[in-house]
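G., before I forget:
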Amino acid sequence: ILNVEQSPQSLHVQEGDSTNFTCSFPSSNFYALHWYRWETAKSPEALFVMTLNGDEKKKGRISATLNTKEGYSYLYIKGSQPEDSATYLCAFAMNYGGSQGNLIFGKGTKLSVKP
Amino acid sequence: EADIYQTPRYLVIGTGKKITLECSQTMGHDKMYWYQQDPGMELHLIHYSYGVNSTEKGDLSSESTVSRIRTEHFPLTLESARPSHTSQYLCASKGYRGRLDTQYFGPGTRLTVL
């Protein structure tokens, strides 16, 4: 059974704090790692898709790194703002005959940023 | 911004009723998905489709059924709702536009069966 673990489960920070979360996934048969941001009552929104070991992606104050050999990805938020409050999901895609398999999601990290 | 819609957003219904959750996308995507999420748990894939007339069961067993008669429409049906079906259901689609495709999600339907 493939498992994707995210930690911490929840995080409460003050506005301006920088924070990071971890996503652990199987290190074999890797194809891609996806990060999503899911605000309450809205649709999950894609942040990053990473495929190569050592990949680093950045979108504004949010960045992510990927280590496929050891099976983990970090998501960093620099200078958290209240609007960053959301659940951050990661999803692992297995290599399925050279194509991307279906996504396997973690439970998410729920971030709350207090003004 | 992705155009994928789900209706209803919230549904409270009695045991034994037949329900259909609607999902539509206007992006012309071939692949579509249904996920189920219980509180505090992961999104689990319950159905997916590669295109018209294609449907497959996902990793999580579900008593629901789906159909794909049109590219843009992927409804999910429960013939006889039970309290165990209470959950959130999310629909997603993915297009064939290169290697780094990602899934676009609808806002979800929160189903409560009394």
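The mean pLDDT of chain A is 94. Chain A touches chain B through 22 residues (CB under 8 Å).

More on Monday.
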